[in-house]
Specification:
The chain is an alpha/beta fold. Helices cover 42% and strands 19% of the residues. Strands 7-6-5-10-8-11-9 form a 7-stranded parallel beta sheet, with helices on both faces. Helix 8 links the parallel strand 5 and strand 6.
Length: 270
């Protein structure tokens, strides 16, 4: 149960992005994330502390029944594995969730697909919340375009609350390549911007037509600077969210939630 267990030492290194890339694995902490990871078949090993064994004995038993290596570790080792102030003592080593960009934009994908495309998103909490929203509305994938946060970052994984394992996640640093791939596969690109020529309240017919013709991809800009005007200009339409109060703007995750729920409402309306 020692924190000097070489597997624990290797797992702790996964807090670093470079180690995650090299190993092809990352850490999922807490019952929600671990349960979703087990359900998705992505867990390689499950570490649990004595206290976690009492609280989550059914989850540990499920992992063992699935053939996952389960390792009891000391409370001190569990603290090293966790990143929260009060670690839950339950941490899974999981295979990375990335999928190829071609997989989520392919012409063989559902015709009415809806994609969330945050561009150069930098805050892991926002990224995790956006992925969770995309999961909730039934989006087909999330594409992290440009120099974006690693979705396997611990804070992002926790903010996803398990959704990281439900929605395909693609990453591509080349924004132009992402936009070209979307266009080439018949997907209508919608940029969210304060200077959009289409009001979200008036966008139902536009969204319905785009969904029927090949699907939609919503572009969301960086937290600090918004969407680059040059990127917005390449979209098929620029959509603004009406603000009726005195707030200057909306948080990125909040704006994404509003747009994606609007898209889902139109998509699923008879």
């Amino acid at each position: 149960m020692s924190e000097r267990n070489p597997r624990v030492v290797s797992a702790v290194k996964l807090h670093r992005s470079a180690s995650r890339r090299k190993a092809g694995t990352f850490l999922a902490e807490g019952a929600n994330s671990v349960a979703a990871a087990l359900d998705a078949g992505r867990v390689e090993e499950l570490f649990y502390s004595p206290r976690a064994a009492e609280r989550e004995h059914e989850l540990v038993a499920t992992a063992a029944a699935l053939g996952v290596r389960t390792s009891l570790v000391s409370e001190r080792a569990a603290e090293h594995l966790g990143e929260t102030v009060t670690p839950p003592g339950l941490v899974a080593v999981c295979r990375l969730v990335d999928v190829p960009m071609a997989q989520v934009v392919s012409s063989t994908a559902p015709r009415s697909r809806m994609l969330a495309v945050p561009v150069e998103i930098s805050d892991p909490g926002n990224a995790g919340t956006l992925i969770r929203v995309a999961d909730a509305v039934g989006a087909d994938a999330v594409v992290l375009a440009g120099d974006s946060v690693d979705p396997h970052n611990g804070k992002c994984v926790r903010a996803c609350a398990g959704s990281l394992f439900h929605v395909p996640i693609a990453r591509d640093r080349d924004i132009d390549a992402v936009l070209t791939a979307l266009r080439d596969n018949g997907i209508t690109v919608l940029a969210t911007t304060a200077r959009g020529e289409v009001d979200l309240d008036d966008a139902d017919e536009l969204l319905r037509g785009a969904g029927e013709s090949g699907g939609t991809a919503w572009l969301f800009g960086n937290e600090a600077h918004g969407l680059d005007p040059a990127v917005a200009a390449r979209a098929d339409h620029r959509i603004r969210i009406p603000i009726h109060g005195r707030a200057e703007s909306l948080n990125l995750a909040a704006a994404a939630a509003i747009c994606l729920y609007t898209g889902a409402r139109v998509r699923h309306r008879p």
